[in-house]
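Thread amino acids onto this structure.
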């Protein structure tokens, strides 16, 4: 794997840390700003919605510059957003800082996925995408627990200063290591937008929203669930997040490996198992050991879906993949926002801290249903003619070849 993937992984590490560290710091931030836990949960929802909007917006704004330069600009935006959060005098400014940082997120992973896939041979594309996303998953083993520990010991503001410095490191790595790949000739914005007319691209994005949303329904409220229900001390949340992160690392690498071999079966297994584990988590959350195992499994099964879903979108929008790739990262975060919001609603309605797990199970099961539908439609479209490309694109209208005189 090329060294440039390391630079992308460092950027992903910083972004992953800022996205997830807020889960462990929610009680501290809520206490400092004198807001409720569900209100503080808006820092998760707001970030996620910023990714949804920022992914296509930043990708479109970056159409005219090289992908390397755009990745560098996005890391700059990420640094600024985290510094705003670090010095925020009131909750509204903190939320604004989260949104500014989030605008970089989707386009970074979207453009980064395309760059990563272009750096390797076709049969290694999902593996290369997984390698970049390893930065995001390792953030949950190292960055998030350390950020939570620092936030609880010294103050959450210090955590966001450290995260901003990770952005500086990522920016330097991209400047030094990522090659300035030429943009494909003749691909216009109209072509990029045209990818969304492909029903398979839309189905893959819907699977992303629902499948990964299932993970976030549970994990957004992991701190109150583990302290109030499982009976852990607040300090134990750090190593529970390490377990979640280890699961994510393993799931991401397994997903990347098998997505290059059997993409759809990988999705069936991971989404189906995720739905089951989330449903069981409503029960296992009441036992310390079972809760810890469940947290790790949710991380593993949730992230096993990431490389196959990202590759599915790249395959289906192969002619003009950048915007579709970025939009799919937005879809992950739309799922996060939807699930965090729904989880907050069921908690506020008095169903208890384990209720979001039922929401998550329903979302993951819905994603599995869409995966089965997507495969069925693909089989139907390829059945009439074996000439249609295996990527599942609509058959082209045949033009008669000119007669030879």
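Threaded sequence (405 positions):
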């Amino acid at each position: 794997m090329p060294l440039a993937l390391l630079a992308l992984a460092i950027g992903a590490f910083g972004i992953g840390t800022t996205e997830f560290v807020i889960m462990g710091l929610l009680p501290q931030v809520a206490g400092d700003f004198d807001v409720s836990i569900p209100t503080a949960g808006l820092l998760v929802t707001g970030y996620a919605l910023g990714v949804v909007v920022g992914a296509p917006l930043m990708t479109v704004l970056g159409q005219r510059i090289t992908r390397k330069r755009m990745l560098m600009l996005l890391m700059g935006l990420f640094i600024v957003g985290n510094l705003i959060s670090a010095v925020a005098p009131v909750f509204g400014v903190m939320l604004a800082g989260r949104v500014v940082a989030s605008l970089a997120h989707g386009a970074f992973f979207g453009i980064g996925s395309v760059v990563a896939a272009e750096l390797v041979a076709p049969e290694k594309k999902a593996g290369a995408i997984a390698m970049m996303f390893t930065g995001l998953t390792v953030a949950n083993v190292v960055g998030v627990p350390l950020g939570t520990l620092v936030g609880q010991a010294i103050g959450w503001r210090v955590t966001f200063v450290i995260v901003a410095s990770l952005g500086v490191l990522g920016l330097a790595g991209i400047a030094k290591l990522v090659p300035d790949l030429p943009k494909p000739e003749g691909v216009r914005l109209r072509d990029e937008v045209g990818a969304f007319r492909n029903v398979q691209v839309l189905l893959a994005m819907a699977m992303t929203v629902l499948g990964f949303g299932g993970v976030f329904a549970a994990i957004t409220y992991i701190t109150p669930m583990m302290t109030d229900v499982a009976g852990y001390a607040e300090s134990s949340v750090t190593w529970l997040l390490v377990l979640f992160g280890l699961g994510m690392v393993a799931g991401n690498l397994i997903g990347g490996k098998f997505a290059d071999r059997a993409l759809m079966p990988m999705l069936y297994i991971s989404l189906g198992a995720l739905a089951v584990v989330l449903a069981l988590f409503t029960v296992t959350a009441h036992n310390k050991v079972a809760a810890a195992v469940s947290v790790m499994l949710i991380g593993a099964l949730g992230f096993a879906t990431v490389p196959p879903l990202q590759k599915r979108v790249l395959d289906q929008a192969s002619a003009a993949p950048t915007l579709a790739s970025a939009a799919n990262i937005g879809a992950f975060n739309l799922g996060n926002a939807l699930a965090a919001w729904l989880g907050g609603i069921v908690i506020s309605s008095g169903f208890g801290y384990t209720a979001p797990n039922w929401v998550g199970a329903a979302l993951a099961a819905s994603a599995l249903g869409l995966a089965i539908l997507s495969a069925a439609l693909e089989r139907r479209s390829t059945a009439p003619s074996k000439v249609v490309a295996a990527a599942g694109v609509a058959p082209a209208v045949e033009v008669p070849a000119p007669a030879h005189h």
